[in-house]
């Protein structure tokens, strides 16, 4: 996906009705020794980092439970859509653990430090509507009879992104992701570098021409 230029948006969904991702298999984990657990969690963290580093927008469609590592997977995505009835939580402290695949870092960046601490310290689960109110998800939608309401809303969101200039969207994601980690002056410099890369693109010229000619632009990602 990272190197396929035809890919414009990635949507993560589950094939299991009622569950987005229930997290690690604790019965399997119980059979591991300490070294094996450390290796397992490191691989999991690396996977989430790879998802977060995808250059195109990513959307998590949460139609059911997203617990522990399951919520960490959703947090590694750029955008999250949840069914109102979905249940989400970093529940690791209820099992004698702490989030180890990015949850302690991505949740506070998403909802703020105080709320993230409360959710992690208590291991509390929240539904889709509560998650939307706290900014954990972008949209919460009523579940439908097929159990895929979040997926359908995620597809609609993806279709809003698809017509936009692919390279500009990628540069926008890069500027946001890098800029949020630094002071604002450094962030402005990052934005400037990303903008400079976009200036010579054919899509920028097409966007300007389409505006002048009062027609929809035809972007090609070049």
From TrEMBL:
Pfam families, sorted: ECH_1
Signal peptide: none
Biological-process GO terms, alphabetical: fatty acid beta-oxidation
GO cellular component: mitochondrion
One MF term in the entry's GO annotations: enoyl-CoA hydratase activity
Top-level taxon: Eukaryota
Coiled-coil regions listed in the entry: none
Keywords, alphabetical: Lyase
CDD domains: crotonase-like
Similarity field: Belongs to the enoyl-CoA hydratase/isomerase family.
PANTHER family to which the protein is assigned, alphabetical: ENOYL-COA HYDRATASE DOMAIN-CONTAINING PROTEIN 2, MITOCHONDRIAL (PTHR11941:SF44), ENOYL-COA HYDRATASE-RELATED (PTHR11941)
Protein name: ECHD2 protein
Organism this protein belongs to: Rynchops niger
Lineage of the organism: Eukaryota, Metazoa, Chordata, Craniata, Vertebrata
């Amino acid at each position: 996906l990272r190197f396929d230029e035809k890919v414009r948006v990635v949507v993560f969904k589950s094939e299991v009705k009622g569950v987005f991702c229930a997290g690690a298999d604790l019965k399997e984990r119980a059979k591991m020794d300490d070294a094996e657990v450390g290796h397992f969690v490191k691989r999991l963290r690396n996977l989430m980092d790879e998802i977060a580093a995808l250059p195109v927008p990513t959307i998590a469609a949460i139609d059911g439970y997203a617990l522990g590592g399951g919520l960490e997977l959703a947090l590694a995505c750029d955008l999250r859509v949840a069914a109102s009835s979905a249940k989400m939580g970093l529940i690791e402290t209820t099992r004698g653990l702490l989030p180890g695949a990015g949850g302690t870092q991505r949740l506070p960046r998403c909802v703020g430090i105080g709320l993230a601490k409360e959710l992690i310290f208590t291991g509390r689960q929240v539904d889709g509507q509560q998650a939307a109110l706290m900014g954990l998800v972008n949209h919460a939608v009523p579940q439908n009879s097929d159990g895929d309401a979040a997926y359908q809303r995620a597809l609609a969101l993806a279709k809003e992104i698809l017509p936009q200039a692919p390279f500009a969207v990628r540069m926008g994601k890069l500027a946001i992701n890098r800029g949020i980690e630094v002071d604002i002056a450094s962030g402005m410099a990052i934005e400037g570098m990303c903008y400079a890369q976009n200036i010579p693109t054919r899509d920028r010229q097409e966007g300007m021409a389409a505006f002048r000619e009062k027609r929809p632009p035809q972007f090609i990602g070049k």
